[in-house]
Amino acid sequence: MKRIAGLLVVILVLTGVLWAQNAMLINGAGASFPYPIYSKWFGDYSKKDTTVQINYQSVGSGAGIKQVTEGTVDFGASDGPMNDDQIKAYTDKHGSGILHFPTVLGAAVPTYNIPGVSGTLNFTPEALAGIFLGKVTKWNDPAIAGPNKGVNLPANDIVVVHRSDGSGTSYIWTDYLSKISDEWKSKVGRNTAVSWPVGLGGKGNEGVTGLVKQTPNAIGYVELIYAAQNNIPYGTVKNSAGVFVKADLAGVSAAAAGAAKEMPDDFRVSITNAPGKAAYPISSFTWLLIPEKFSDAKKRDAMKAFLKWALTDGQNQVESLSYAKLPKTVVDKELKAISKVQ
Amino acid sequence: MSTASTSVSSAGPQSGSRSLVSRLRDGDEIARIITFLFAASVVLITIFLVYELWRGSVLARTKFGLAFFFSSFWDPNSDQYGAWPFIYGTLLTSAISLLIAVPLGIGAAIFLAELAPPKISDSLQFFIDLLAAVPSVIYGLLGVFIVVPLMRQYIQPALKGAFGALPLFSGPPFGVGYLTAGMVLAIMVIPYIISVSREILLGVPRDQREAALALGATRWESTWKVVVPFARTGIMGSIFLALARALGETMAVTMVIGNTPTVKASLLAPGYSIAAVIANEFSEATGDLYVQALVELGLVLFLLTFILNGLARLLIVVTAQRGGGMGNV
């Protein structure tokens, strides 16, 4: 009995402590790709403004869109923009719209394991589409060998590896393939998970990497940050200007800058295959999904202040975590758009 | 347990004069109510689970109907969902795992219970219990780093060399696939079979063994012809426990099965399982129908487990009637 009483006291004290912490709590949920930078941002921001505490669950883009639509969180986050149906579902439920704010950039890179080939391979869009459609089946196919003169490519069968879990990386990859190949667009399309024409599925970046490393003659795609942090070799991809670009942060930012000229007002834009000589073609924004109307004015102001900070001071931190910065033109446009949040 | 409860309830009317308060004060009544609630919660949770799965899959159920079970096409983009590749993969990998694990597990249990010196038996039991408690992701890593390369480099080429003409062993050796998943599952469920079967065998009364020995049976004859048949319902129970784990295993399977929703006759081909696809796709699933199709897959897995468990009960009842034995130990 005494023990139970003791336990009750402890629980009461703990609840009291949590109660006393009167910082305003803002809850968000969504994409896992930007989680490292978001958690750094939210941590740093709550030190700057101690009255605000932002919680973020990295449950995945799909779940983020679902939760913000259902109103169980204050904001969402996604690696792919919400489609028109999803926006309509949100508007029907809440009577007001939802806004997209790009925060950082990511990219997907092709990684491969061919016995006897150690150099960096060049991939044309046609080669990538052919390989992932199951039409280019041998490594010495002219589509691959053409831009790789001097590399001794074997006549082995290609083993394709893709993500098995729904993911933003797959979204970027299939979005790119949909843009450069009509056949891919009509047969497979773009999504976080698709019906892959060929290949094995690996769970997560680490699963894909593991399969590619272990399986001779394999090709897969992984998130750029993951490849950079784990020293995974990857190939270059030919961009829309005809230049073979090896993905790096500058190339990804260049893709965003190339697309910025035609940036729509709602920021729902795909920047795969973007124009510009330096642009890496398989790049994408990741977005915060912010409701247009907040019922709580204090929460709204805190959210707006945070957004402003993330787009300005916050951008200086992103490269230390291997994310690509937003180009200035996009930041300026977003700062103006913050006033739409009411 | 059952005798205790009947004696309490039969004592009830006689001591009817005792007030509820005094019965409560004794603690018997309180204990009875509390433990009853605990027991009832199991049933409630099951009902709630089925209800939620049923309710959460209404769109998918009405749209696809029975075709959901037989369609092999799974495409979130065109919103077409069929469960057959996943059902097939789940059943096939579980069957492979039992084919490997049952003889090994029961053999080991017989050694530990009947033939090994008690000291060795007890210390080995410690390791077996340890193995049973290892998280499945560890077995998955073991699969990825050891079983998959072994399969690709040695076992699958050897199988293809020997039986390559059969469709069962055709196709390129990727390393991952049904057979690999079945083998990793076998490694995972063996400890269950050994541990439970050993306890059951140790529970067989001494007189059974002594009677067999007195009739002139050898040690092995008494074990194989008397002790094992006596314990068979319990051993079967251990196998179904293993099957239940194999059906629902998620992490280890998704790491080695290849995650490809196709139906292939070849054991070397990559496949998919129900639990693996739910774990893989649920968090990023957008669109109501997509989510509901995944929930319906959960319902299908529940149904599979339910049917197989029902069959297991039936089998146990049938064999118990024929052989007497120890009933449900």
Ordered list of secondary-structure elements with their pairings:
The complex is a heterodimer of chains A (342) and B (329).
Chain A: H1 2-20, E1 24-30, H2 35-48, E2 52-57, H3 61-70, E3 75-78, H4 84-94, E4 98-113, E5 122-123, H5 125-133, H6 142-145, E6 159-163, H7 168-180, H8 182-187, E7 200-202, H9 204-214, E8 218-223, H10 224-229, E9 236-238, E10 244-245, H11 249-260, E11 283-291, H12 297-311, H13 315-318, H14 328-337
Parallel strand pairs in A: 1-2, 1-3, 5-9, 6-7, 6-8
Antiparallel strand pairs in A: 3-11, 4-8, 4-11, 9-10
Helix pairs in contact in A: 3-4
Chain B: H1 2-14, H2 20-26, H3 28-56, H4 58-64, H5 67-70, H6 84-115, H7 118-132, H8 136-163, H9 178-202, H10 206-214, H11 219-230, H12 232-248, H13 251-256, H14 274-281, H15 288-323
Question: Which characteristics define this entry?
Answer:
heterodimer, A: about 350 residues, alpha/beta, 8-stranded mixed β-sheet, 3-stranded mixed β-sheet, about 40% helix, B: about 325 residues, mainly alpha, 15 helices, about 0% strand, globular, disordered N terminus, disordered C terminus
Describe this structure in a few short sentences.
The complex is a heterodimer of chains A (342) and B (329). Chain A is an alpha/beta fold. In chain A, 42% of the residues lie in helices and 18% in strands.
Care to describe what's here?
The complex is a heterodimer of chains A (342) and B (329). By secondary structure, chain A is of the alpha/beta class. Chain A is built from 14 helices and eleven strands. An eight-stranded mixed β-sheet of chain A has the order 2-1-3-11-4-8-6-7. A three-stranded mixed β-sheet of chain A has the order 5-9-10. In chain A, strand 1 (24-30), helix 2 (35-48) and strand 2 form a beta-alpha-beta unit. In chain A, helix 3 runs parallel beside helix 4. Chain A starts with a helix and ends in a 5-residue tail after the last helix. Chain B is mainly alpha-helical and 329 residues long. Helix content of chain B is 75%, strand content 0%. In chain B, helix 10 (206-214) crosses helix 11. The longest helix of chain B has 36 residues, at 288-323. Residues 1-15 and 324-329 of chain B have low confidence and may be disordered. At the A-B interface, helix 3, strand 7 and helix 9 of A face helix 8 and helix 14 of B.
